[in-house]
Amino acid sequence: MAALPPGALMRRAAEGLAVHCGRQLRSVYGSRVALLVGSGDNGGDALFAGARLAGRGARVTAVLLNPERAHQPGLAALLRAGGRAASTVEGAAAVGGADLVLDGIVGIGGSGGLRPDAAGLARVARESGAVRVAVDLPSGVDADTGAVGGDAFDADVTVTFGALKPGLVVGAGADRAGEVRLVDIGLRPHLPEPPVVLLEDRDVVALLRVPGPDDDKYTRGVAGVAAGSAVYTGAAVLGTGAAVRGGAGMVRYAGGAAEHVRARWPEAIVTDGSPSAAGRVQAWVVGPGLGTDDTAAATLREVLATDVPVLVDADGITLVAGDPDLVRRRRAPTVLTPHDREFERLAGPVGDDRVGAARRAAADLGAVVLLKGTRTVVAAATGPAYVNPTGTPWLATAGSGDVLSGLGGALLAGGLEPAAAAAAAAYLHGLAGRIAAGGASTSASAVLDALPAALRQVAT
Question: Which sequence spans correspond to the domains of the chain?
Fold first, then answer.
């Protein structure tokens, strides 16, 4: 801001905002636009964008929630362009009859839910059928965590400036934000390293190792799978299959479902014995379908005593929750993959700050934590947290997590740094889920079958 003329950043933001609003309207000329204007810079952005839309023939009404503290240059620009201002009482009708409602109530400095007058207007907007666009961040959403502590604006589209905010991509905030559009206003050279990274195809491609002409099955990575039991044979079959299809050069299976794994995956090296009888591996997956009895606990301890990376899932997490020092004492990397209820047993309630919860657990346990959810979070004790944007609610099906675990184990065995391996596995698993579902119900077996297609998709 010091290097630019006063108001330059706001005008850049308003220009981008007006462009995106125009794209949401069938025709700007003659359309009815209502601005919900608070006292901060978001209100100024909305007013300047409204002035641009009014200049193109839109009928723009600014509903001023605090007229004395409205952004005066923005308000003057709107009035000069032919827009009008209204109080909250008068403005309800304008909001109810609008084609587009622009939320400029509060910005990234806001906390808690909307005040009653603003909440009422947000409800009118939601019920009106208008396109709802949020300025930078939906009002009522915490910019850092995505928490929603009360009433909040429900956006169809959020136009954000300079950089994505964590609250747009995690927690309840991701649901309130709708489609997120980023407007570059020239901040990039001045931004620090991001504390949160939203993965894209190109990020995952950069992580994946493509075998070269000198590679063999050993250099590509040998993954071990200690999963399944006589009762839960499917976990062994799915986890082993995901490791096979996820890029491991060789997969070694050890556990109580050997016959089923051998029948389904003849390329796997299968043993009926303990993990120590399976031979040398470069990473282990342990836990899915293992059970929680003494035999399962002994298997977990044996795997965690190795000097290679270990991914722990499902029953393995339940066992670790009973003795967290099993992980804390390890010197080799550990990846834990809990859903919310498993996380609570392991590290207490997740709460509203999913990134913060994953970070705290990672620091306490000395592990990488992959916290499953609509937007899966991957965090280590240090470095950026990863947020996964892929996936579908249809992935909430039995065995889906076993596929994720086997894929993560293959990537660990291939030499990826643990947090990167977990993040890439979540991303590819989510893509495979979308491919398998195609908008309808699917199964873990179908997700497993879709893994090669997901790998091809990110590579093209």
Answer: 8-191, 201-459
Reference 252, options 210, 319, 313, 303; nearest CA is 303
Helices and strands: H and E segment counts in the chain: 17, 17
pLDDT higher than threshold 90 for residue 340: yes
Q: What are 50's two structure tokens? A: 């409204």
Q: What is the pLDDT of residues 207-229, one digit of tens each?
A: 998 899 999 999 999 999 999 99
Asked if the model's pLDDT at residue 109 lies above 90, the reply is no
Question: Nearest Cα to 248, choosing from 360, 136, 387, 413?
Answer: 413
Which H or E run includes 364?
A: helix 354-365
pLDDT on residue 209: 86
| CATH number, domain 8-191 | 3.40.50.10260
Q: CA–CA separation, 148 vs 176, rounded Å?
A: 9
Output the furthest CA–CA distance in the chain (Å, rounded). 81
pLDDT > 70 in the chain, percent: 100
Other CB atoms within 10 A of residue 438 CB: 12
- Report helix, strand or coil for 385: strand
pTM, full prediction = 0.94
CATH superfamily entry for domain 201-459: Ribokinase (3.40.1190.20)
Rounded Cα distance between 65 and 57, Å, is 24
